[in-house]
Amino acid sequence: MDVAFNEVSYEYNDAGTTVQALHGVTLRVPAGRFVAVVGASGAGKSTLVQHLNGLLLPTKGTVEIGDVCLPEQKKQLQPLRKKVGFVFQYPEHQLFEETVEKEIGYVLRMQGVSKVEAAKTAAAALHTVGLPPALLSASPFQLSGGQKRRVAIASVLVQQPKMLVLDEPGAGLDPASKEALFQLLCNYRQTNNASIWVVTHSMDDVAKYADFCVVMHNGTPLMVGEPAAVFQAGDVLQTAKLALPKAMAFAQKAIPSKGTIPFLRDAATLADWLIDRKGGQQ
């Protein structure tokens, strides 16, 4: 789904004081992208993405998500939220049902879907997130942290959203669980031609998975574009207080002070670059 923020500002009241969390946000993101929203704490990342399915509505300006324009079309929030799935940080803290099957199928039952159809869809969603059917009868509270995170995501995927928005999805997960989670997101995007929006503090994840980046600073986009351009814009990184991905930081040490740092997604691309560099020096 195409997304457009048009001069969006958002403010709220905090103990009698007006706080402006977003101001003058204008950006365009085409459908089907893997978008990383980055920036320092308090930069407006979570506030920005909560406008994508109407959890927050602009104080000024408009947000266009597909063919829905907010706040003008507030009556379209329910169908919009079927298309835009939102997963909060630590979503496993919101689990409450007796079994995994009931947890995943809850939203469908609330929409009047039969128990049989809800159970069938829940099983399919569990398969999508890479968990075995034996867990359908298990208590979600007995699962590992990574499994709980996947169940929470499955409960959103049952509606087959065209856009999936996740706030710090890798938070608290061990490296293997986080890798599996991001591969799940990549697979869902490819299989369903969906858009993925992720709020993250991990520049390694941005470099490895994202193909579009929104750098937030003081409630407004500082830079919008491909990760390669962002990570090669030293002034932007400095202003936004962002570090280079580990692979690029390592490469920086190997390049003379006036050299250009290549865009390196991960350790594998770093290794290839080092081999090529060594060969070129022989």
Automatic annotation (TrEMBL):
<keyword id="KW-1278">Translocase</keyword>
<dbReference type="GO" id="GO:0015087">
    <property type="term" value="F:cobalt ion transmembrane transporter activity"/>
</dbReference>
<feature type="domain" description="ABC transporter">
    <location>
        <begin position="3"/>
        <end position="243"/>
    </location>
</feature>
<dbReference type="InterPro" id="IPR017871">
    <property type="entry name" value="ABC_transporter-like_CS"/>
</dbReference>
<dbReference type="InterPro" id="IPR003593">
    <property type="entry name" value="AAA+_ATPase"/>
</dbReference>
<dbReference type="GO" id="GO:0016887">
    <property type="term" value="F:ATP hydrolysis activity"/>
</dbReference>
<protein>
    <submittedName>
        <fullName>Cobalt ABC transporter ATP-binding protein</fullName>
    </submittedName>
</protein>
<keyword id="KW-0813">Transport</keyword>
<dbReference type="InterPro" id="IPR003439">
    <property type="entry name" value="ABC_transporter-like_ATP-bd"/>
</dbReference>
<keyword id="KW-0067">ATP-binding</keyword>
<dbReference type="GO" id="GO:0005524">
    <property type="term" value="F:ATP binding"/>
</dbReference>
<dbReference type="GO" id="GO:0042626">
    <property type="term" value="F:ATPase-coupled transmembrane transporter activity"/>
</dbReference>
<keyword id="KW-1003">Cell membrane</keyword>
<dbReference type="Pfam" id="PF00005">
    <property type="entry name" value="ABC_tran"/>
</dbReference>
<keyword id="KW-0472">Membrane</keyword>
<comment type="similarity">
    <text>Belongs to the ABC transporter superfamily.</text>
</comment>
<keyword id="KW-0547">Nucleotide-binding</keyword>
<dbReference type="InterPro" id="IPR050095">
    <property type="entry name" value="ECF_ABC_transporter_ATP-bd"/>
</dbReference>
<dbReference type="InterPro" id="IPR015856">
    <property type="entry name" value="ABC_transpr_CbiO/EcfA_su"/>
</dbReference>
<dbReference type="InterPro" id="IPR027417">
    <property type="entry name" value="P-loop_NTPase"/>
</dbReference>
<dbReference type="GO" id="GO:0043190">
    <property type="term" value="C:ATP-binding cassette (ABC) transporter complex"/>
</dbReference>
